[in-house]
Design brief:
The complex is a heterodimer of chains A (290) and B (311). Chain A contains seven helices and eleven strands. Chain A has 290 residues and is an alpha/beta fold. The chains are: A alpha/beta (290), B alpha/beta (311).
């Protein structure tokens, strides 16, 4: 018997050094964020989705992502108490510096104070969590958050490359937030020359994804409303579902003409659906009207 | 700054750099974007060495990952509230200016922005005993006026302003009066130059306030948008109160364009009332305060002082 070895059969193996921990972190599934927001994402969101949040200054983008972080970081339960969080880790890349960690903690605190014991008998009054335990829960939740403060365009690009290391050593991180993705546009226009704002965002998103595509996480980024060319979502080529494309677009707008209270509208679009929700901004974050 | 050089890593010797340049790889971003195999081919270095160069660049040029709990503790222990010394203003902005943030005061010419800055500087330097860095772009700073403000408070002793050498007097506030004077030469024919500079300046300001826990107080012009022509008018019209609630904010826009709008965390709008010494300060935009807030002040020989609610 003769065996012919064809050249195509000789495969080149790329040797990539990876520790056992890294392998597990890459392959094992990260906590899902399906119920991140029942109002905005009634069908749930999947790992690998990309979410865009646009709005003018003061419309609540940073407040919204702070709320998402609260839900993501808090644990599902604690002893007998139902907290309702997702118990997942998150990374925030901060380029705008409007994110306030003190606000994140205060929203967590006020949510925890409202939590009650899950299994209450008829006779006993449901207990509230005491402040010492609140402090402990917040400390543990914050341990799953990583903050990356960026100050210029080159640093942002290099930071994208550092995400790989961070994700491989944190197996329970499911969410990456960039606030905002358009912060260094004017600096980059002078150096790299991409003028069209749409293309710029797409390029940034691609750079981010080339560093994180091995890891199935949810990417969320914010941008200014005026930062776009006039393209309909349906016509936008990035809208078709698939790797590297935006799955949800949230547009935050202020409602004109209201004297007493600041009213806002959030428009959530996918390539096939569109939904509008009304909200106001309070100390505890965005309050949905319905 | 981003160009590859031997100082970054001893493995990047001259001949290696030459080979990279031939393939148009000049900066750290270029080298990170190439995959390892291609780099091995180009530089003739080993896989391990390429990996080491990569990790080295990432470690030195990326943002430093800070654990949430550490970021929280750092903010908690380093943030300070700097009162402006003007009671009605302090009450409106929640006690004073927070460090780690950029505040903007905008208004039309003659509305009192520089007076406000001088009063705040005098107060912080004297009452608070903190250093104030005052950056003056229009030669409006007047030492005599600061002296007048201080004397009216009863401080005649010159030496009280010289702080003792052993004291821990770090800078906590930097005042920039005013911003448009720096950028107007660039905004106009070639819009992009000005915006690129503004982007870089905003980046530097954010770096300073976040990493060093100081406050930046920036002065900007506000211009009136005339409906028909969108011409930037002088905006020196007096504000006529309507139902006790001035709505003049809606027709006045801060100068410097859309990009700048989102940079400060809080924008205060100051304007005249009835062409007397009275002024009203309103919160035009803020990440933490309601935009319905207003307060009244007076400008006289004593500087900017608090005024009570009623006209």
């Amino acid at each position: 018997m003769r065996f012919y070895i064809r050249s195509e059969d000789k495969m080149d193996y790329d040797c990539k050094a990876e520790t056992g921990v890294q392998l597990l972190a890459r392959l094992s599934s990260r906590p899902n964020l399906n119920s991140l927001s029942e109002t905005l994402f009634p069908g749930g969101i999947n790992l690998g989705n990309i979410i865009e949040i646009s709005g003018d200054s003061g419309s609540g983008k940073t407040t919204l992502i702070t709320q998402f972080l609260v839900k993501c970081l808090l644990p599902k339960t604690w002893n007998e108490f139902t907290i309702g969080g997702l118990g997942a880790g998150a990374i925030i890349v901060d380029t705008d510096h409007h994110f306030q960690i003190l606000k994140l903690v205060s929203i967590m605190e006020s949510l925890l104070m409202k939590c009650r014991e899950s299994n209450t008998s008829e006779v006993q009054l449901p207990k509230h969590i005491d402040s010492k335990i609140i402090e402990k829960i917040i400390k543990e939740s914050l341990a799953n958050l990583i903050v990356l403060n960026c100050y210029d365009s080159v640093q942002l690009f290099v930071t994208f490359h550092s995400l790989e290391n961070i994700l491989s050593s944190n197996a329970n991180t499911s969410l990456i937030i960039i606030d905002s993705l358009s912060a260094y546009y004017w600096q980059d226009v002078a150096v790299r020359g991409i003028r069209k704002m749409d293309l710029y965002l797409r390029k940034m998103l691609k750079a981010l994804q080339s560093c994180t595509e091995e890891y199935k996480v949810i990417v969320m980024y914010t941008k200014q409303t005026h930062f776009q060319s006039n393209v309909n979502f349906a016509e936008d080529s990035t809208a078709t579902p698939g790797p590297g494309n935006v799955s949800y677009k949230i547009q935050l707008n202020r409602v004109e003409g209201k004297e007493t209270e600041d009213l806002f509208l959030a428009e959530v679009s996918t390539p096939v659906t569109k939904c509008v929700h009304q909200y106001t901004v309070s100390d505890d974050g965005l309050m949905w009207a319905n | 700054m981003a160009r590859l050089c031997t100082q970054m890593n001893p493995l990047l010797e001259e001949r290696v750099l030459k080979r990279l340049h031939q393939r148009k790889i000049f900066t750290i971003v270029d080298i990170l974007q190439e995959n390892a195999d291609k780099l091995i081919q180009i530089t003739k270095l080993s896989y391990k060495e390429i990996l080491q160069i990569r990790q080295n660049i990432i470690a030195n040029y990326s943002a430093f990952p800070v654990k949430g709990i550490d970021a929280y503790n750092e903010i908690l222990s380093n943030t300070a509230l700097i009162p402006s010394g003007i009671e009605s203003l302090d009450a409106m902005i929640g006690g004073g200016f927070l460090t780690g943030k950029i505040y903007e005061v905008c208004g039309s010419s003659g509305s009192g922005k520089t007076q406000l800055c001088l009063t705040v500087s005098a107060h912080i330097a004297h009452d608070f005993k903190q250093e104030v860095h005052y950056i003056d772009t229009k030669t409006d700073f007047s030492g005599k006026r600061v002296q007048e403000v201080l004397e009216s408070k009863g401080y005649h002793d010159e030496t009280s302003l010289h702080h003792d050498q052993d004291g821990h007097h770090s800078v906590r506030i930097i005042i920039l009066d005013s911003l448009p004077a720096l950028f107007f030469p660039f905004l106009g024919k070639n819009l992009n130059d000005g915006l690129t500079l503004m982007n870089q300046m905003a980046n530097t300001m954010k770096y300073i306030v976040t990493e060093y826990h100081v406050t930046f107080l920036v002065v900007n012009l506000a211009m009136q948008l005339l409906e028909e022509e969108n011409v930037a008018g002088d905006g020196s019209n007096e504000c006529i109160p309507q139902d006790g609630n001035l709505v003049i904010c809606d027709t006045m826009k801060p100068a410097l364009g859309k990009y700048w709008l989102d940079i400060p965390c809080t924008r205060l709008f100051i304007h005249k009332i009835n062409s007397t010494e009275r002024r009203q300060i309103a919160v035009m935009k803020s990440t933490s305060l309601s935009t319905k807030k207003r307060c009244k002040v007076l400008i006289n020989q004593k500087g900017v002082i608090s005024a009570l609610g009623s006209e």
